Structure formats: structure tokens, C-alpha cells
């Protein structure tokens, strides 16, 4: 009996088995990213505390996508305080003030929740 390859045993996505072609999708030509099939409009949300502006989409009540650019990171007061305390911005999970601003935008109807 032959032994399975190590990559196949670990479920390596380069293997055309269980996680690749058999899963029902193939990488688009020239890239490895799977196309985003979610339907939602990104809206600009401004932080009520510091004025940082981010792009936000609500895919469900539980799922929020927040896209920060370099200008928003530089302007964010909470990020600045935490960096001054020694944290690294890539490791800061969220800004609570921005989270509150996003929740306010949802409750005010400025940020719609995408239908399922």
C-alpha cells in the first residue's frame, strides 16, 4: 500500500484533491484569490471622536468589514495612544471609538446590513 503525500495529508491547497478543484472553485487566471461573492456596499464612516474615515460594509449583524487606509490609521486617536504605549498597529484588533461610530451609522440607517 502506498503512503499518501505529506501535502495531501495536511490538506495543502496546492493539492488538487479535497481543498482544491474538488471544493468547487479554482483560482482565477493570474491570481490565487477567490472572488468575493458577498454583496454589500462599502460606505464611508467617520469616527465621532477623532475624525478618521474608514470604508465599512455590514454583511450581517455579526459580520462587519472595516477597511483602514494609512491616513485613517495615522488620524486614529486610540491607535496613537496605544502605539505610544508600545503596541504595534498591525496587532491592534480594533478601535472602540470607531466601533461605536459604525454601530451608530447602522442604527441611524447610514450603513445598511446586507441581506442574506
Element-level helix/strand string: HEEEHHH
Class from secondary-structure proportions:
alpha+beta
Task: Work out the helix count.
Answer: 4
- Sheet bearing the most strands, described? 3 strands, antiparallel
**Rg estimate, integer Å:** 20 Å
Low-pLDDT residue spans: 1-25
- Strands across the major sheet, in which order? 1-2-3
The end-to-end span amounts to: 47 Å
Count of distinct structural domains: 2
Percentage of residues in helical conformation:
25-40%
Shape: globular
Topology, number of strands: 3
β-strand percent reads 5-15%
Give the overall average pLDDT. Answer: 77
How is this structure best described in words?
The protein is of the alpha+beta class and 116 residues long. The chain folds into 2 domains: 1-28, no CATH class; 43-107, no CATH class. Helices cover 27% and strands 12% of the residues. The protein is built from 4 helices and 3 strands. It has helices spanning 6-10, 70-75, 77-84, 96-107, and strands spanning 43-46, 53-58, 64-67. A 3-stranded antiparallel sheet has the order 1-2-3, covered by helices on one side. The longest helix is centred in the C-terminal third of the chain and has 12 residues, at 96-107. Residues 1-25 have low confidence and may be disordered.
Amino acid at each position: 500500500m502506498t503512503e499518501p503525500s505529506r501535502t495531501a495529508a495536511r490538506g495543502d491547497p496546492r493539492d488538487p484533491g479535497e481543498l482544491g478543484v474538488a471544493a468547487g472553485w479554482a483560482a482565477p487566471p493570474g491570481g490565487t484569490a477567490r472572488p468575493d461573492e458577498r454583496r454589500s456596499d462599502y460606505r464611508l464612516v467617520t469616527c465621532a471622536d477623532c475624525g478618521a474615515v474608514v470604508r465599512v460594509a455590514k454583511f450581517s449583524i455579526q459580520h462587519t468589514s472595516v477597511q483602514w487606509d494609512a491616513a485613517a490609521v495615522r488620524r486614529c486617536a486610540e491607535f496613537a495612544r496605544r502605539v505610544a504605549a508600545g503596541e504595534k498597529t498591525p496587532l491592534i484588533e480594533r478601535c472602540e471609538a470607531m466601533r461605536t461610530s459604525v454601530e451608530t451609522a447602522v442604527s441611524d440607517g447610514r450603513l445598511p446590513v446586507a441581506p442574506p
